[in-house]
Each structure stands twice: as structure tokens, then as C-alpha cells.
Amino acid sequence: MHHTKHGGKGSIRGYVQSLPKYITLCERNYLRALKVLPEEEVGARRQIKIGTMDFFILIESVEKYTTDIKITQQHSLSSHLGQFELAVRLYHDAKVAEVIQHNYHQRVKPSYGYPNPSMHHKDEKYQLNAFLGDWLSACVESGRVPLNWDVNNGLV
Predict the structure, then answer these.
(1) Residue 11 pLDDT > 50
(2) What pTM was computed for the model?
(3) How far is Cα 21 from Cα 3, in angstroms, rounded to an integer?
């Protein structure tokens, strides 16, 4: 965290994110995401099982330079635990993926003042993308994908 005085008036600049570190994280997330994506067409979906939890990746939109996906979790652990949801945008020209929204919250800002009414962390965007990276790594390393072994192409 950097605090610097500037402008000669003694004002203090807030949290400043390390852009190279953030871009590297988003590049790694892009490469990991490509390994777990379903077919890249709107509505395509892939189920990934990790332990007793089921995660679903849904292709929400496909454009020339971007693909938007939604990652959701379904579990039977407790009704008190909310359902996990991330909206992620893949930028194909820059080859980066980043979280753009989580659990029905507004778009994720690059940084937040602290304290704030919603109690967001100063570096919440970085933390969400680091979590995405950990989750994608777990999917690649330990996830199971149920396969449809329909050898008759839908014919009985």
C-alpha cells in the first residue's frame, strides 16, 4: 500500500494497485479459463465437480473481442450459505480475464476508499481475481466433468 503526499497541499493519495501484478494475474486467469470453458456459444454450459460441490460455467455472450461467462455454485452444505456467483469477462485481444461482478453486487471498482459503507476491501478487485485464479487452478487440477456418453447420438 502506498501513501504519498502530492500537490503541495498535504493531500494523501489512497490505495494504488500494482498494474503489472494485476495484469499478470488476469493473463494467467485467461489461460486457465480457456482450459475449462464449454463450447464458446451463447447458452453453452459446463458442469465441474470439486468434492461435493457442483460449479457451472455458462457462456452469456460472445463478441468479436470478448466473451462473458457466469460461474455459479450449487451445494447442499447449508441453506445459510449463499450461492457463489462470479461474472467474468475474457478479453481475447489482450488475452486477459477478469471478474466484473460477484454475487449480484454492482460492477467491481478498481479500488475502494476505506472504510466504506459496504465494507469492501481497498483491493477487492485484485482479491476477487486472485480468488478466480485459485478456483480455476482447482478446477484444472482437481475438477471432474460429468461426461455424456451418448454413443447413439440421441437415438434409442
Answers:
(1) no
(2) 0.74
(3) 18
d(CA 40, CA 103): 23
Q: Would you call the peptide bond into 20 cis, given omega within 30 degrees of 0 as the criterion? A: no
Check: CB of residue 56 under 8 Å from CB of residue 45. yes
User: CA-CA distance, 103 to 113, in Å (whole number)?
Assistant: 21
Alpha carbon dihedral 136, 141, 146, 147, in 10-degree steps, equals 110
Considering the chain, what is the average pLDDT of its residues?
Answer: 80
Query: Number of helices (H) and strands (E), helices first, in the chain?
Result: 2, 7
Distances in whole angstroms, Cα of residue 101 to Cα of each of 49, 114, 153: 23, 20, 37
The DSSP secondary structure of 83-105, one letter per residue, reads: PPEEEEEEETTTTEEEEEEETTP
Give the contacts of 73 (CB within 8 A, at least 6 positions apart): 53, 54, 55, 56, 83, 84, 85
Q: CA Rg, the chain, in Å? A: 19
